[in-house]
Amino acid sequence: MTEPQDRSGEPSDSRWSMPRGLIVILGLAALVVTVAGIQVAASIVGPIFLALMLTVAVHPLPEWLRRKGVPGWLATIAAILVVNSIILVLVLSLALSVAQLATLLPQYADDFTNLIDDAQSFLNSNGVNSTDAQTLLSQVDYGKVFGLVEGILQAMLGVFSNLLFVLALLLFMAVDGSSYGSRMPIVTRMRPDIATALTAFSVGTRKYLIVSTVFGLIVAVIDTGALWALGIPLPILWGLLSFITNYIPNVGFVLGLVPPALLALLEGGPGLMLTVIVVYSVINVIIQSIIQPKFVGDAVGLSVTFTFLSLVFWTWILGPLGAILAIPLTLMAKALLIDIDPSTRWVNTILSSAPPPPTPVAAPTPPRHEKGQP
């Protein structure tokens, strides 16, 4: 039976198919609608994503406890207690630090005014009498400048604004996740591509969180010690801020630097501020910008450019929480949109931090000669 042919004589597919360009346009339109919906419901979707990432992060703990002979229900409770304790400690530490900062900043109001006056006198003594420069300095307001400091801390605290919702989600997700290990073999038999994509997402997310947590602790300890040695107030708060902003790729270092640098300006003048900036730059640039991206790139397989674009995208959708969860959310989107389909996995070659190793090509087998032939 011959295949149906069109008028040109070429074989044609009897099944109806859409043009590839139209498929791309419809896919982009669906993506825009989905992104708009997520952005509208960010206050609900964000905590759900946070609870999901934390559940994925602590999932190996109950599995390890079960292998040690701990009952399943007790292992699940242990995982819930661990992750809830971490969240509560972070929230209480940030809340206490913000309260301490609120009582500390008003003490520097006079110092800030004197600093502005000194800057104006310095410009006048050096022959800079520009009206624009004088006007600019006169418009520098203490409340606006240090409102930026409080804004950064409140944004970090706002990540856990729906704390009760997150804790409830963690409880339910941890209970459901206790049977994840027994479900995956079934998914693997029925849909191996889906199982592979979900497993890659879980493993990549845990690797990223482990790498970011380890380097975040290192940076936080070093920053806290350096600030304490320089006499900057609230060094533990700024170390905690460095730890949290370490989960924000590319620009987290700058967010963690601004508050202690401004406080150093009031405490000891421009010289102390410059010292804090130099110390932070040396410590954080070496660790966060040179060493850590190498480990993060190897862990998640994302290029630096794509990581930065992911940060901008998820921050625009979910706000500060999107900045912290940018990499895990990107891994989840990649698993659901790319890794789940073998025909689209070639996109990973473009998104990855390094090209995959070339696949060795077997040498062609020489033809076998029949008997009687030379």
What is the count of helical runs? 17
Radius of gyration: 28 Å
Distance between the termini: 41 Å
User: In total, how many beta strands?
Assistant: 0
Low-confidence stretches: 10-14, 359-363
Mean pLDDT across the residues is 75
Would you tell me the structural class of the helices and strands?
mainly alpha
Q: Name the helix and strand elements from N-terminus to C-terminus, one letter apiece.
A: HHHHHHHHHHHHHHHHH
Q: Sheet bearing the most strands, described?
A: none
What is the beta-strand fraction? under 5%
Query: Which percent bin holds the helix content?
Result: over 70%
- Quaternary: single chain
Which outline best applies?
globular
Topology of helices and strands:
Blueprint: H1 20-40, H2 42-58, H3 60-67, H4 72-104, H5 109-125, H6 131-138, H7 142-158, H8 163-177, H9 180-190, H10 192-230, H11 235-245, H12 252-268, H13 270-300, H14 304-318, H15 320-324, H16 326-339, H17 347-351
Helix pairs in contact: 2-8, 2-10, 3-4, 4-7, 4-8, 7-12, 9-10, 10-11, 10-13, 10-16, 11-12, 12-13, 14-16
